[in-house]
Amino acid sequence: MEHPHQLVNATNFIFCLMLVLSLRPPPVTPESSASIPTGNTIASGEQTGTDGSNPAGATDNGTPPIAGPPAMAVGMAGRDRSHLKVGSGACSRFVFNSSRIRNGSITPVHSKHSGIFPSSLCQLYEFVGTGAERVQIIFSEFRLPSKQGPSECGDTDILMVYYIVDEREELVETLCGDTLPKPILSEGPRLLLEFRSSYNNTENKGFTGDFLFLTNFGIPTGHQPNQSECTFHYFRNASSQGWIQSPNFPGAYPRNIVCHYFFHGGPQDQVNIRFTYFDIEGILPCDEDSASDYVEFSNFNTRDRKYVLYCGHWRELSVRSDGRYFRITMASNDRLDGTGFRALYNFETAQQQQQQVTTEQNAVAAKSASGKVMSSAASRLQHIPGMSLGLPLLVRLRIPVALITVVLAATVTATTVITTGTRPSASVIRIIGLELIKILQD
């Protein structure tokens, strides 16, 4: 009876084994895992995508990928991204972590053989910084022609810009056309770009953008004590003059930001600020009630009643401090965006300012006097008999210009003595000579 029992036991074992195997999930194939990319994109071009082609900004020089830890999922792996799919294929995704690469370039991937984009192309570029870092994108090439017209983007051949704040994506801008976009600055350490291209397209199109993880808010000048704060100091002993600008200029400045610019001059200094560009979103009186962004000037750390708040567009705007210290504060809300400002600053003593004013006044006076003398000289030349006919004739005879000038200057002198009874001064004769040379050269 042992043999039947052994047969039953063997049969039960085989049945259980088949039952266990039938409950196991099927093996993951490349097709089923294509939409869940892993890994990291770095300078040498590691890709997390679906098409297996070279990633954005990569070259075919055979550079081996840099070893490192697995890429961050950017909080997207478990999220439904069906709205980012084009046709039946998912978007290729390229991830740039600041811990592995600080700057580089991105450009859409196209076919190596045809040089054009494949059908229904969708590519994502995710930038992941840390702490107080922000991502800045500066475009050097951009050509995404729109079939909707020069001022309207369609559903394809577009580049969409998303801010990622608190695990939430916010579409802030859609780019298309042939105009080079202004720089982009993220509101936090993360940024997402989505590129979509239409199918069967043979046009020469695409873009190239340089990315940079930074902590200076896109303000390249001044001393920044704390990387997490938009505060910059400018010292006379470091430079007597220079430039200041709003964050990310000439691109849009970030929302909900407050930036301080402090100027520290010498004991006898004053600070001069001359704006070459000023465009701050808002309307008068540029306060909270008008929901405006604004720029504030002050001779103190606190509010200075001498100055009103400034916003809107100004063609010419200059301010001067009362003493050695000056402060400029720019504040934005969460409403609309502006392109900011750019200004030239310089430290000057009262004596230097007076010398500058005197020099400018003398230049204006000299220009006015010169204009009067030249007008008088020109009018006298017109009344010299035969002048309108004689000059062209003398030039055609190839008589040297210097000789003609001397003769005509003497003629003008004689004419002046006869008509006015006075002899013109040497400076007047010199001006007349210059005018004659100019006439002859013309």
| Largest pleated sheet | 5 strands, mixed
Number of helices: 6
Distance between the termini: 130 Å
Rounded to the nearest angstrom, the radius of gyration is 36 Å
Following the backbone from N to C, one meets helices and strands in this order, namely HHEEEEEEEEEEEEEEEEEEHHHH
Helix percentage range: 10-25%
Q: Roughly what is the average pLDDT, rounded to an integer?
A: 75
User: Ranges with pLDDT <50 over ≥5 residues?
Assistant: 25-46, 49-88
- CATH T-level topology of the largest domain: Jelly Rolls
Relative strand content: 25-35%
CATH H-level superfamily title of the largest domain: Spermadhesin, CUB domain
The overall number of domains is 3
Number of strands: 18
CATH class of the largest domain: Mainly Beta
SS-derived structural category: alpha+beta
Give the oligomeric state of the chains in this entry, treating copies of one chain as homo and distinct chains as hetero.
single chain
- Examine the secondary-structure arrangement and name the CATH architecture of the largest domain: Sandwich
Rough outline:
extended
The main sheet orders its strands as 1-3-8-5-6
Organism: Anopheles albimanus
Keywords: Disulfide bond, Signal
InterPro entries: CUB_dom, Non-NMDA_GluR_Accessory, Sperma_CUB_dom_sf
Protein name: CUB domain-containing protein
